[in-house]
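Why should sequence recovery work at all? Because a backbone constrains its sequence more than one might expect. Tight turns favour small or flexible residues, buried strands favour hydrophobic ones, and helices have their own preferences. The token representation captures these environments compactly. In the example below, the structure is given first.
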């Protein structure tokens, strides 16, 4: 049974520690300047730290072996983690819009803008490096949790860029409305980014198809069947965290010994597993080419 790698734990712990550091930098920038854009950046980081804490827990659960209550393991917690993160991001976006409009209506007062900009630029630079690192490690390890976390960090970078832009424009031009305006624009981006994370998590929970993986499995099966003069049908594939589950029906001529058919089916399963980029649990169903069609069942 696969366990979380040291790289995955290192990446998640690094994300959590860096998130706490960013929280300090961004809230300092907000308290110093009173900027709506800086507030949006700081609030997004509060959400990030909460989401990373849940993701760190999920990483410790996802690789637990199957048990009497979870026959297929605990892989799907990755989608709950990702979905929760996306929902928190969207919630932060709504709060940012509310606060930006409130500040716009009540009057905008900025102070110590230069110092605040230094904090925000430092935070954005650190997060840009961290986000790229997390997405790369998530892709290499086929980790839904790390990838979602990395994308969230990169969205945080754009929030910081927006905060710097809005605050800088307000400071440079004297038109303070730039500050809440930019906060609202980037809150809308946060809402979109969060919705994409939730959508991906929902697809995973609903066992949405993956055409690319299905094509790889189908190609491997077609090659095997052409070589052995067999046929297959009802190929089905679903992802569950870092694991893929596949089943298919392999059709044999009448009268073939069960031992021979089983050996061929096992070889087909191994070839399909070898063609896929991540761990796969594959089940084949043996049947005669003249067996009744039960596809409608």
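From this structural description, the recovered sequence reads:
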């Amino acid at each position: 049974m696969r366990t979380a790698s040291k790289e995955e734990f290192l990446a998640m712990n690094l994300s959590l520690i860096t998130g706490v550091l960013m929280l300090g930098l961004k809230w300092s920038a907000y308290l110093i300047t009173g900027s709506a854009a800086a507030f949006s950046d700081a609030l997004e980081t509060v959400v990030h730290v909460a989401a990373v804490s849940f993701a760190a827990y999920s990483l410790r659960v996802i690789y637990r072996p199957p048990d009497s209550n979870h026959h297929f393991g605990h892989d799907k917690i990755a989608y709950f983690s990702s979905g929760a993160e996306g929902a928190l991001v969207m919630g932060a976006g709504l709060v940012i819009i509310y606060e930006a409009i409130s500040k716009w209506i009540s009057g905008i007062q900025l102070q110590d803008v230069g110092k605040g900009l230094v904090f925000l630029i430092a935070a954005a630079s650190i997060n840009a490096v961290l986000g790229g690192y997390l997405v790369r490690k998530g892709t290499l390890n086929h980790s839904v949790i790390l990838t979602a976390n990395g994308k969230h960090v990169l969205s945080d970078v754009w929030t910081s860029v927006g905060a710097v832009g809005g605050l800088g424009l307000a400071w440079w031009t004297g038109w303070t409305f730039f500050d809440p305006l930019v906060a609202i624009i980037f809150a809308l981006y946060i809402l979109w980014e969060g919705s994409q994370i939730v959508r991906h998590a929902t697809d995973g929970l609903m066992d949405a198809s993956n055409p690319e993986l299905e094509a790889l499995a189908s190609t491997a099966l077609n090659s095997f069947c052409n070589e052995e003069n067999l046929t297959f049908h009802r190929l089905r594939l679903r992802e569950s965290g870092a694991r893929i589950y596949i089943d298919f029906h392999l059709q044999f001529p009448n009268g073939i010994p069960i031992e021979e058919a089983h050996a061929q089916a096992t070889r087909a399963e191994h070839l399909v597993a070898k063609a896929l980029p991540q761990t796969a649990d594959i089940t084949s169903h043996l049947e005669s080419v003249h067996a009744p069609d039960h596809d409608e069942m």
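A few observations help interpret the result. Strands lie at 231-240, 243-252, 280-288.
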